[in-house]
Design a protein that fits this description.
The chain is an alpha/beta fold. Helix content is 33%, strand content 25%. The protein has helices spanning 50-58, 98-106, 116-129, 145-156, 175-192, 203-209, 226-230, 233-239; strands at residues 11-21, 24-35, 39-43, 64-70, 76-77, 81-84, 163-167, 195-199, 212-216, 220-224. The strands form 2 sheets. It has a 6-stranded mixed beta sheet, with helices on both faces. The chain has a 4-stranded antiparallel beta sheet with strand order 2-1-4-5, with helices on one face. The protein is globular, with a radius of gyration of 18 Å. The two termini are 30 Å apart.
Length: 243
């Protein structure tokens, strides 16, 4: 866990969130606060509702409850939310480059009518945030899993969000790529003072980099710092039971 924190200047409150599909309860009575400058890990067994929770925060899934964001002055605003999915589906044989991807996502005009030089510096700035500026002209299909996730992370930083949601962003990434990604996430929290909510199955990385942990299984079982959650009975039953 990171030891140094600045004073918390803003917060996002998830209040009484719940999602049902017919009579099936995906999760209910979910309440927690995400502080700027902190990385919060969302953990739980498969089927706990983790990805659905992120999509409900994004507004992509109908839900009960409210999302409230307050800035440094306590003013209630609509937050800017960034999102990195587990994977990006695309044709790996396509000549589409990283720069092409940014151009397609950041402009309303067709890519072939847009000058790449006018947006290149903007794209480089975001790639530099994730130590990936050297990938700007690389073909998407030639990227490793870790490189692709860093590119998607850079894309999620345009515009710079108040809240960044990461849905198992390093699933299937090798150990080196995993470490790089978590270090980048921790650095973004500290330097950009944003809140990050990250779904993870890598408990060792959560121990090392998370400020807070949410243990979810249809509802919040535990919420607190790493030590509080990892030493809880609920955590032992879900992850460390021998039965």
């Amino acid at each position: 866990m990171r030891k140094h924190h600045r004073e918390k200047l803003c917060e996002t409150r998830v209040e009484n969130f719940g999602v049902k599909v017919g009579e099936l309860i995906i999760f209910q009575d979910v309440n927690f606060t995400l502080n700027c400058g902190e990385l919060t890990a969302l953990i739980g067994p498969n089927g706990a509702g983790k990805s659905t929770l992120l999509k409900s925060i994004l507004g992509e899934v109908a839900h009960t409850g409210k999302l409230n964001y307050f800035d440094a002055k306590g003013k209630h605003l609509r937050p800017i939310i960034g999102y990195v999915p587990q994977t990006l589906k695309f044709d790996a044989t396509s000549p589409t480059s990283v720069l092409d991807l940014f151009m397609a996502c950041l402009t309303w005009r067709p890519v072939w009518l847009f000058s790449a030089s006018s947006i290149r510096e903007r794209v480089l700035k975001n790639l530099q945030r994730v130590q990936a500026e050297y990938l700007i002209d690389r073909r998407l299909g030639a990227l490793s899993g870790g490189e692709l996730q860093r590119v998607l992370l850079a894309l999620a930083l345009e515009p710079l969000p108040d809240l960044l949601l990461l849905d198992e962003p390093v699933s299937g990434v090798d150990e080196i790529g995993l470490k790089i990604f978590y270090e980048l996430a921790a650095k973004l929290c500290a330097e950009e003072d944003m809140a990050i909510l990250l779904i993870s199955h890598d408990l060792e990385m959560v121990k090392k980099y998370a400020d807070r942990v949410i243990l979810l299984n249809k509802r919040i079982l535990r919420y607190g710092n790493v030590q509080e959650v990892f030493q809880s009975l609920e955590m032992q039953k879900i992850f460390f039971s021998l039965s």
